[in-house]
Amino acid sequence: MYHVEVLPNATTHLTPGWTYVPDRGFDPSKAAITPTIGRKRGIRDPGNRGDLSSRQTNAIIRHLAELDRENHKDVHIPVPVKQKDAATRGTRGKVTSNVRRILQSQKSFRNYLDDEEAALAQAAHASQRPPAKIAKSSLRRSSTPATTPSTSTPKPDSRRKQSTQQSAESLPQKHVPIDRAPTETKPTETTEPMDEENEESEENEEKEEKVKVKGLIKSEHDNDPLLRSYIPSAPSDRIMQALLSEPPLTYNAARAGPPVTMQSQRHFCCVCGYWGKIRCRNCHSRTCGLDCYKVHEDSRCGAFY
Amino acid sequence: MVTTKPRPSGRASIAKVQPLPDKTFIIDNGAYTMKAGYASDTPIEDETIAMSACSIIPNALVKTRENRVYIGSQINTHIADCNELTFRRPVEKGYIVNWEAQKEIWEHSFLDDKTARSKELRIVIPEETTLVLTEAPNALPALQKNADEIVMEEWGFGGYLRCMGPSLNAWNEVQSVFGDPATQKYDSIISPRECLLVIDSGYSHTTVTPLYKGQPLQRAIRRLDLGGKHLTNYLKEIVSMRQYNMVDEAYIMNQVKEAVCYVADDFVRDMEQTWKGNRKCGQLNPGDSVTVDFVLPDPNAGRKGFMRQHDPLLNAKKRKSALSGAGTETVSEDVLVLGNERFTVPEILFTPSDIGMKQAGIRDMVLQSLSVLPTGLHAAFLANVLVVGGNSLIPGFMNRLETELREVASAECTVRVRQPQDPIRYTWLGASQLAANRTEFQKVAITRQEYQENGSSWTGRKFAGAL
Fold it and tell me: Where do the H-state alpha helices sit in B163-242?
């Protein structure tokens, strides 16, 4: 039998009658405006109980926005007018156009962030190679932990690049005995100076390893070759330089991702804060018991969702 | 030394290179407070003396109920009635966004000779002062450019350095914080100074910044969009739903938060303790009960808010005295009873999923940060975790963080999570240490002349470390 499976990728296939659209997961910034998950989906596949309905996601997003507010109401607090404006300026000449523009700007952080996102997207779109690469790599780095440091610093010398990559590759296996090292360096043996460098760095690593072992917590198994614990040695100087010279991530890329260790979500009683064991039929908020459920039903059921 | 000139007009070429001005003024410009003051001229020997030069000034414009507007430090001195205060903060999400308001607060606090009276905070001649301004990690380039242009073109500081706040902590004497002897033999390769994982939990967010030799490893910086503001608002929301309507009382709820909140080391146990069923039984003696009362401030009586042990019979007493008509004192006070609110509120920093947020808590954020770094560094970073920022002052915070990190770190790694004496001003102190180290400082800071010659985009590249 044939089995056709569409692998998830970023492209969109336009086919008459239907469309494959990449599912990029949940994007909170967009969901607030246009919920991507249809309301009816919850009815259509009821097996998917673990996921939140779009209604609930929107409620959470609204709640988070609420927590992010400075004041409960929108207020405008004008800067108090000074009496002698000219006197304080006095010695300092006149305002430059940059300063005037910045001071008069009423943009919020949201506006600046949108501007930057738009600029990045455009850079990725319009000019083909260089900016797209930067934008992509910075975006990618956030989601998938790359083990090799990307050599984003442009170096015309390709040999150097190779060597850094190689030393990075050899990182996960630093505890490999040294006598295996020649086999590893084989492909690059044609270039002599590099070989020396490699050996040097390895020597360094070895030295560091010895030094580092002292910092470990001692246990009775330290003499047992199987149970002995060792910390992988510190990376070489060159890797560190490459890491240090990387450009900063974008604001969105630096946001912490979803939790690594998935714990089941805890629910709390919306009335008293104790564990939420009972879910209200109408509004899905939780209560801890009949007492609180009665309070909830009488007063605020449906008021918040 | 330097003759005071009016700013050189246009491209008046000055033949000799001007050095950085000797005086260095540091502003650690947080969203909630600014930490500001002059750096000491000599290398710092005693941290407490150096720290005394640093003042904490609220970074906000405040409007009272009577529609009066107060600026910066006036909030602490001029406002008697702290009900229904509304705030305008120039710093949004940790970054200076609104320079109109920020300029007003800076001028009021540092530059205006009528309002900035104290010698420690007055910048007399900006041309003869070097300004060190901190910023949160991953700032938007547009906002960085704005900051550079305003600082150099509006006030014309003689020297200027804009740098990432958490990275300044590496300049401090962190060895003493970690209890290491000042000179260790084996740390000649990786010393705490070289590898330091700074967790900065502030007003707008919590960030993790791994520092290698004082420089940030950009790819591993992570941010959790929860900070002190969210805790206050969350507490406010809960209390408003369960007890009094406090939605307009962010200032008071912040006081309540600072007084009562703690991070539970055993969440489940504390939750069971505060269950209302237990309360009725009275099986716990009131001494070690979690539940407390917070007496709200009373502006009419000039009383401040304070916390005290929970008194389950308070309501009954009140009713009684109201009936008998005696003792108006107990009747007039308003009390918030705080049970599980005390620890469920700060808990969201560790378990953001409690409020439905899809971000990792602090512990997982540290793991995510380390996962993009070479494995060889993990042990060094985990052994040198430094926590700064106001949220680390919540009781139990440090304990909980260390326990959580210990659980996930591999068994042979040492995990040390430490907090400096003053986690709020520690970043400022680090900047002061950097300024005292003249050779290093001159490498990173720029002079006014350099700005005028090269412009703001060059400045941006310089501070990004690209030059």
Answer: 165-168, 174-178, 228-242
B223 and A233 in contact by Cβ < 8 A? no
Structurally, how many domains does chain B consist of? Answer: 3
- Residue whose structure tokens are 């000179």: B183
Looking at the fold, whether B157 and B30 belong to one and the same domain comes out as: yes
Q: Which of A99, A171, A240 sits opposite B153 (nearest CB)?
A: A99
The answer to whether residues B234 and B289 belong to one domain is yes
Ranges assigned E (strand) in chain A: 13-15, 18-20, 278-279, 286-287
Please tell me if residue B358 touches chain A, with a CB cutoff of 8 Å.
yes
Instruction: Clarify whether residues B158 and B71 are in a common domain.
Output: yes
CB B249 within 8 A of CB B238: no
- Same domain for B248 and B324, yes or no, is yes
Q: Is the pLDDT of residue A157 over 80?
A: no
Q: Which domain holds residue B243?
A: 228-345
A86 close contact with B: CB closer than 8 A: no
Query: What Cα–Cα distance (Å) separates residue A44 from each residue in A18, A39, A40, B7?
Result: 19, 9, 6, 71
Selected residues 71-110 of chain B with any CB under 8 Å from a CB in chain A: 71, 86-89, 92-93, 95, 97-101, 103-104, 107
- Cα end-to-end distance, chain A, whole Å: 48
pTM attached to this predicted model: 0.78
Q: Are B175 and B181 in contact (CB under 8 A)?
A: yes
Query: Could you tell me if B205 and B288 lie in one domain?
Result: no
Residue B376, min C-alpha distance to chain A (Å): 4
When mean pLDDT is compared across A37-46, A273-282, B67-76, B245-254, the lowest value belongs to A37-46
